[in-house]
Amino acid sequence: VTQLRTGHAPLNAHFHRIGKAESSECPAFRHHKEDVAHDLLQCPAYHNYRERLRRGLQRTHRGLHLSHILTEPKSIPHLIQYVADAQRFAANFTAVQLPRPHLASCDPLQDAML
To answer: For the whole model, what pTM was predicted?
Structure first.
Protein backbone atom coordinates (compact mmCIF):
# COMPACT_ATOMS: atom_id res chain seq x y z
CA VAL A 1 0.00 0.00 0.00
CA THR A 2 2.84 2.38 0.83
CA GLN A 3 4.43 1.78 -2.57
CA LEU A 4 1.15 2.56 -4.29
CA ARG A 5 0.69 5.72 -2.23
CA THR A 6 4.19 7.01 -2.95
CA GLY A 7 4.34 6.01 -6.61
CA HIS A 8 7.13 3.53 -5.94
CA ALA A 9 5.10 0.48 -6.97
CA PRO A 10 6.69 -1.96 -9.43
CA LEU A 11 5.14 -0.30 -12.47
CA ASN A 12 6.93 0.92 -15.59
CA ALA A 13 6.55 4.59 -14.67
CA HIS A 14 8.59 4.03 -11.51
CA PHE A 15 11.03 1.61 -13.17
CA HIS A 16 11.63 4.08 -16.01
CA ARG A 17 12.19 6.90 -13.53
CA ILE A 18 14.93 4.91 -11.76
CA GLY A 19 16.49 3.60 -14.98
CA LYS A 20 15.20 0.01 -14.76
CA ALA A 21 12.84 0.16 -17.76
CA GLU A 22 13.29 1.62 -21.22
CA SER A 23 9.80 3.11 -21.25
CA SER A 24 7.10 4.17 -18.83
CA GLU A 25 4.41 2.77 -21.13
CA CYS A 26 1.87 0.21 -20.00
CA PRO A 27 2.66 -3.12 -21.69
CA ALA A 28 -1.05 -3.89 -22.09
CA PHE A 29 -2.24 -0.44 -23.19
CA ARG A 30 0.46 1.28 -25.23
CA HIS A 31 0.75 5.05 -25.28
CA HIS A 32 -0.41 5.27 -21.66
CA LYS A 33 1.99 5.68 -18.79
CA GLU A 34 1.86 2.69 -16.46
CA ASP A 35 1.52 4.46 -13.14
CA VAL A 36 -0.64 3.84 -10.09
CA ALA A 37 -3.63 5.78 -11.43
CA HIS A 38 -3.55 3.93 -14.75
CA ASP A 39 -3.17 0.55 -13.06
CA LEU A 40 -6.01 1.07 -10.59
CA LEU A 41 -8.44 3.15 -12.64
CA GLN A 42 -7.89 2.73 -16.38
CA CYS A 43 -5.91 -0.28 -17.61
CA PRO A 44 -8.21 -2.56 -19.62
CA ALA A 45 -6.10 -5.58 -18.66
CA TYR A 46 -7.43 -5.31 -15.10
CA HIS A 47 -11.04 -4.38 -15.87
CA ASN A 48 -12.59 -7.43 -14.20
CA TYR A 49 -10.55 -6.95 -11.04
CA ARG A 50 -11.37 -3.24 -11.04
CA GLU A 51 -15.08 -4.02 -11.16
CA ARG A 52 -14.73 -6.14 -8.03
CA LEU A 53 -12.83 -3.27 -6.42
CA ARG A 54 -15.57 -0.85 -7.47
CA ARG A 55 -18.29 -3.07 -5.95
CA GLY A 56 -16.36 -3.33 -2.69
CA LEU A 57 -15.85 0.42 -2.53
CA GLN A 58 -19.55 1.06 -3.16
CA ARG A 59 -20.25 -0.85 0.04
CA THR A 60 -18.04 1.66 1.87
CA HIS A 61 -19.97 4.52 0.21
CA ARG A 62 -16.92 5.61 -1.75
CA GLY A 63 -16.52 5.79 -5.47
CA LEU A 64 -13.58 4.68 -7.53
CA HIS A 65 -11.37 7.71 -6.79
CA LEU A 66 -7.64 7.28 -6.39
CA SER A 67 -7.42 9.42 -3.25
CA HIS A 68 -10.11 7.36 -1.53
CA ILE A 69 -8.69 4.02 -2.65
CA LEU A 70 -5.22 4.85 -1.30
CA THR A 71 -6.11 6.68 1.91
CA GLU A 72 -9.48 5.69 3.31
CA PRO A 73 -9.04 2.96 5.95
CA LYS A 74 -12.23 1.18 4.82
CA SER A 75 -10.92 1.09 1.24
CA ILE A 76 -7.58 -0.55 2.04
CA PRO A 77 -8.89 -4.15 2.36
CA HIS A 78 -10.51 -3.79 -1.07
CA LEU A 79 -7.27 -2.41 -2.52
CA ILE A 80 -5.28 -5.30 -1.07
CA GLN A 81 -7.83 -7.75 -2.50
CA TYR A 82 -7.50 -6.10 -5.94
CA VAL A 83 -3.72 -6.45 -5.87
CA ALA A 84 -3.98 -10.09 -4.73
CA ASP A 85 -6.68 -11.01 -7.27
CA ALA A 86 -4.92 -9.37 -10.21
CA GLN A 87 -1.58 -10.85 -9.13
CA ARG A 88 -0.28 -7.57 -10.45
CA PHE A 89 2.92 -7.59 -8.44
CA ALA A 90 3.39 -11.36 -8.06
CA ALA A 91 6.55 -11.32 -10.19
CA ASN A 92 8.13 -8.75 -7.88
CA PHE A 93 7.11 -10.15 -4.51
CA THR A 94 6.91 -13.55 -2.94
CA ALA A 95 4.41 -14.64 -0.35
CA VAL A 96 5.59 -14.15 3.19
CA GLN A 97 4.74 -16.82 5.71
CA LEU A 98 4.27 -15.26 9.12
CA PRO A 99 5.10 -17.42 12.13
CA ARG A 100 2.10 -18.77 13.94
CA PRO A 101 1.88 -17.56 17.53
CA HIS A 102 2.57 -20.14 20.20
CA LEU A 103 -0.62 -21.00 21.95
CA ALA A 104 -0.09 -22.12 25.51
CA SER A 105 -2.13 -25.01 26.76
CA CYS A 106 -4.01 -25.03 30.00
CA ASP A 107 -1.48 -27.47 31.48
CA PRO A 108 1.57 -25.71 32.99
CA LEU A 109 3.60 -28.96 32.94
CA GLN A 110 2.96 -29.44 29.24
CA ASP A 111 3.85 -25.76 28.58
CA ALA A 112 7.17 -26.24 30.41
CA MET A 113 8.02 -29.14 28.08
CA LEU A 114 7.42 -27.01 24.95
So the answer is: 0.72
